[in-house]
Amino acid sequence: MGMILGKISVETPKYEVLQSSSDYEIRKYPPSVAAQVTYDPTEFKGNRDGGFTVLANYIGALGEPHNTKPEKIAMTAPVITRSSEAPEKIAMTAPVVTSKSGDGEKKLMTMQFLLPSKYRKAEDAPKPTNERVVIMEEGERKYGVVTFAGVASDVVVEEKVEKLKKSLERDGHKVSGEYSLARYNPPWTLPAFRTNEIMVPIE
Hints:
Elements: E1 16-20, E2 25-29, E3 32-39, H1 52-59, E4 79-83, E5 96-102, E6 107-114, E7 134-138, E8 141-148, H2 154-170, E9 180-183, E10 196-201
Parallel strand pairs: 4-5
Antiparallel strand pairs: 1-2, 2-8, 3-6, 3-7, 4-9, 5-6, 8-10, 9-10
């Protein structure tokens, strides 16, 4: 019942709030380790979150873990969808991180799970048995963040992104990359109780 009503009971990324206003927060995130997979959504009938099963298998969320130990890895939150205008750019706990990139016609998605904080280096995490899953380290980073409830539809996300970018630039912050969408709840959480965040990297 708690998850239906939006209770977040898994590990989430730690961060330091550097600045807070009515429009956004400026947060600094420490280094982390992520598992990611890059794919063409057409592989999954156009489902942009199609890589979720691949990563869920790696950590053992759907049964036996698909890693060489094998070791079950705790799920974290949020799920993060990262968008990129450039051709495939692989860089970023929950989060599942999904990055979108395209070369004009072909659109690729990169989805990531941020691993629990006990994994401090990429080599600390169990090695995936599926070669499509890549373990990577994400350095310290700074974001302008806005939090909102409801369904994170494309229209809502675009509106939030534009408003956040304008607010950041108005206050003298320099945007340094494309936004990420962080979703903290499973699909069965009632929309009114869902927690979503738009995260825009800044210098």
